[in-house]
Amino acid sequence: MALRRLQKAVKERVSKQEEAFSNHYELAAFLYDKVSSKTNNTDEIIMGRADMLFKFLKYSNLNKPQTLNKYINEIEFHLEKDTVVDEIIDKILENDISLFKVFLKAKSEMTTRNPYSDTMEETLGYENKKALGYFIDNWLAFQSVIRSYIKKFHPEIGDNVLITPKLLMNLFNDEDIVNRAKIIQNLRIEIVHGLKLPDEKHIAEAIKAIEDIMSILYSKFSKEEIEELRNKFKEICLNL
């Protein structure tokens, strides 16, 4: 009953799409209402850490219904597997990987108490921020170079394709590259959705996997193109 009253109040307040959410309770009520309209079984809806999402949206200047609707409308929610929050975070980071560090900042500030669960979670005291930061820098460079490779050799694929091990298999038909890409992908999933900090061994493995793939990719470009790619990546880092 309390949630319904809150939903009604939120509907009235955010009918002005440019008005930002005041707190994560408003955000959760808004999300519940939106996701309910896309599913026949509301019992399947598991919200996830709306408090963390609220902080992330606020830091990213995405904390308005109008902005959030853009992502929600693109998502085919798989509620039997993922929380609402997880799916939205994935979509935002998929659309703009430069927000990854902003997400980590939001996640690292969270307490261990999940307001949507009775359990205590081992959310982040990110002691390994430096190592994770180095991984993210390399991961951003990796994404940038892959997209440049696609633009040069496979422009028919387009600019907005999601970089996955399956895509790399189609591009290179190389099991070693795909296996390295899976290491990178698994660490990214662990960082975004995991309750524990990835250990240094896994971070180092992922960084090595990125470096190995990058060396293969760089061999496909001229020295001038490599320099241009590196300068482009420096610009991305400066804007983070």
Poorly predicted tracts of residues: 118-126
Strand content: under 5%
- H/E element order: HHHHHHHHHHH
Write down the overall geometry: elongated
**Number of helix segments?**
11
Distance between the termini: 42 Å
Radius of gyration equals 20 Å
The number of distinct β-strands equals 0
- The chain-level structural class is mainly alpha
Mean pLDDT level = 81
How is the main sheet built? none
As a percent range, the share of helical residues equals 55-70%
Number of domains: 2
Description of the structure:
This protein has 240 residues and is mainly alpha-helical. It folds into two domains: 107 residues, no CATH class; 110 residues. 64% of the residues lie in helices and 0% in strands. It contains eleven helices and no strands. The longest helix has 25 residues. About 4% of the residues have low confidence.
